[in-house]
Amino acid sequence: MFIDSHCHLDFPDLAKDLQTLLLNMQHNQVTHALCVSVNLPDFPRVRALAEAHANLFASVGVHPDYEDQIEPHADELAGLADHPKVIAIGETGLDYFRLQGDLEWQRERFRQHIRAARKINKPLIIHTRAAAADTMRIMQEEGADRVGGVMHCFTESWEVAQQAIAMNFYISFSGIVTFKNAVALKEVAKNIPLDRMLIETDSPYLAPVPFRGKQNQPAFVRHVAEEIARLRAVGIEEIANATTHNFFNLFKLSDYGIPN
Q1: CA distances from 3 to 32, 151, 212, 238 (A)
Q2: Quick check: pTM over 0.90?
Q3: Residue 198 neighbours by CB under 8 Å, 6+ apart
Q4: Largest Cα–Cα distance of the chain, in whole Å?
Q5: What whole-number percentage of the chain has pLDDT above 70?
Q6: What is the secondary structure of 188-254 as a DSSP string?
Q7: Alpha-carbon distance 193 to 183, whole Å?
Q8: How many CB atoms lie under 10 A from the CB of residue 235?
Q9: 38, 91 in Cβ contact below 8 A?
Q10: What is residue 257's predicted lDDT score, i.e. its pLDDT?
Q11: What is the pLDDT of residue 258?
Q12: pLDDT digit string (tens) for 79-135?
């Protein structure tokens, strides 16, 4: 079976077809999915999805690209995460690709998320783009290794992956790993220890080959697993079993997806 460790089923384009998407998951042996928060005003609908469906989970956080937000405090985030179906803090992190100028507010927001994760003892979902050095530095300064988490939609170098793993983080691959031009990322996927790997869709974005350019959905996560299996010259069952076990282990869930 497969697990989509990062999707946005609350986004309107997916939410309107939710029942179809859940059936597609079932038909493709995708047993669970983590619906990831990107801002606090929309968090209640993310949490409601998790509450309504046994195989869906939620996170709480404010994405670094969301500039015009009331800045979350660690205590507020920890309070919202105090729920059995809210299994992570994030997504959070740094993004210097989309935003320019003085981004100290982004770095402070990231620090608040790490402090919240430490307070509630739940793992982090980290987004980093064109900001690897500062991301790793802040993770170290704030003790992110004490809770661990996942480097979501990983596109960084092997060296960054090794640094993250050393801080108790997993590396998650999205549909990008299926793209022909993702040569360096394919090499990372070949070398990541299997016990530190997750797979995801980041739906509705980044649909894998053969659906590239179309709207993504959790059912397509099996294509990510298939590509990684091809790169590593192993059976897809090995990737499926490892990433499923890793998901349950990271997010403190039993083998049936029930919070421990």
Answers
A1: 5, 16, 20, 13
A2: yes
A3: 3, 5, 150, 170, 171, 172, 173, 243, 246, 247, 250
A4: 47
A5: 98
A6: HHHHS-GGGEEE---BTS-PPTTSTTSPP-GGGHHHHHHHHHHHHTS-HHHHHHHHHHHHHHHTTB-
A7: 18
A8: 10
A9: yes
A10: 63
A11: 63
A12: 999 999 999 999 999 999 988 889 999 999 999 999 999 999 999 999 999 999 999
Asked whether 127 and 92 are in contact (CB, 8 A), the reply is yes
Side chain identity at 148, as an amino acid letter? G
pLDDT tens for residues 6-61? 999 999 999 999 999 999 999 999 999 999 999 999 999 999 999 999 999 999 99
| Dist. CA 170–CA 20, nearest whole Å | 30
* Tens digit of each residue's pLDDT (9 = 90 or more) over 240-249: 999 999 999 9
Q: Which residues does residue 93 pair with via DSSP β-bridges, in sequence order?
A: 127
Find tokens 């090995």 and name the residue: 238
| Helix, strand or coil, per DSSP, at residue 178 | helix
Q: What secondary structure does DSSP assign to 133-161, as a single string?
A: HHHHHHHHHTTGGGT-EEETT--S-HHHH
Residues 40 and 26: their CA atoms lie apart, in Å, by: 30
Based on C-alpha coordinates, what's the Rg of the chain? 17
Q: Can you give the pLDDT at residue 260?
A: 56
Residue in the structure block whose two tokens are 């802040």: 138
